[in-house]
Amino acid sequence: MSFRISETTIGSAVATSGTFTLSYPAGMNAGNFAAFGHKLWIDKFQSLLASPADFSVSFGTSEITVTYLGATSIPVGARVNAQFNILGEDDGHPDIVPAIDGVNETALVEINLGAPVTLDADGILDGVTATDSAQSYGPDDFKSGFTGTLDVPRNLTIVGTAGANHVVTVTGADVFGSVIVENLTVNATTPVVGKKAFKTIATIDVAAGAAGDTIDLGWGDAFGIPVFLPGSAYVLAELEDGVAASAGTLVAGVSTAATAITGDVRGTYTPNSASDGTKVFKLLAALGDPSYKGVAQYAG
Fold it and tell me: What is the CATH number of domain 2-99?
């Protein structure tokens, strides 16, 4: 990974969630930069900040906007040195082309998502109690036949009875074993579709809400991608059983700090055809850094 530098002097104090802008390095634009790994050096702090924990970045048409996430305000007159990552000659593999601004190497990768079993709306919890007091459920409460481990990393779905409005907090782990937490808010009998790809489920906490309700928790057909997907256009082909598939739904990985309600940190894919335990789904993608696994999961 290589980078380009932009500098500015803060004209007015920047508090938490405040923003400031920087100019693009000469000859560069939004298309030159990666979605991750940026750094800020602030001379008044004498410290190096890293995205997305300390700040987030938006690459606009004519300038770069930084949203500061630190607790201590950046004072007036602070000099900021920004290192914005681009993919290039220092990304850990031999150069195929010479280092040229605006020309970045990519790797063509095949992502095998397996042959996921059929989605199941109540495969994890089936009609458990949701009342006007908080409830917690663990492995002993899981539906018979569910061991706590999903066949592939995939999203969750939840549905309740009439009037159900409970916030359900699911804690588990992703495909790499990192703790992952997601909040799903029940919307009565309308199914609510989760965004994060879970591999295992540990606990489910149901907050107080409407009394006398029950909820079902299961899994859907949005499958977790094991590497960071910058955007849907980076997927060149979708395959089902080795042949071109009708277009499914690709969701890019979240590049800002993850929360309990943000999307998956690497991205998801929902095929056009429903899973049935036999169809094998694959993606062919052009990725600048196939080793990058996204920002840290939200762990509560």
Answer: 2.60.40
């280092």: which residue's tokens?
Answer: 99
- Ranges for all domains in the chain classified under CATH 2.60.120: 120-221
* pLDDT tens digits, 169-214: 999 999 999 999 999 999 999 999 999 999 999 999 999 999 889 9
Higher pLDDT pick, 99 / 169: 169
Angle in degrees, CA 220, 250, 292, rounded to 5: 100
Q: CA 262, CA 173: separation in Å to the nearest integer?
A: 16
Report how far apart, in Å, the C-alpha atoms of 120 and of each of 146, 189, 296 are: 11, 16, 28
pLDDT confidence bin for 47, thresholds 50/70/90 = confident
Q: What CATH number has the domain spanning 120-221?
A: 2.60.120
Domain with CATH 2.60.40 in the chain: 2-99
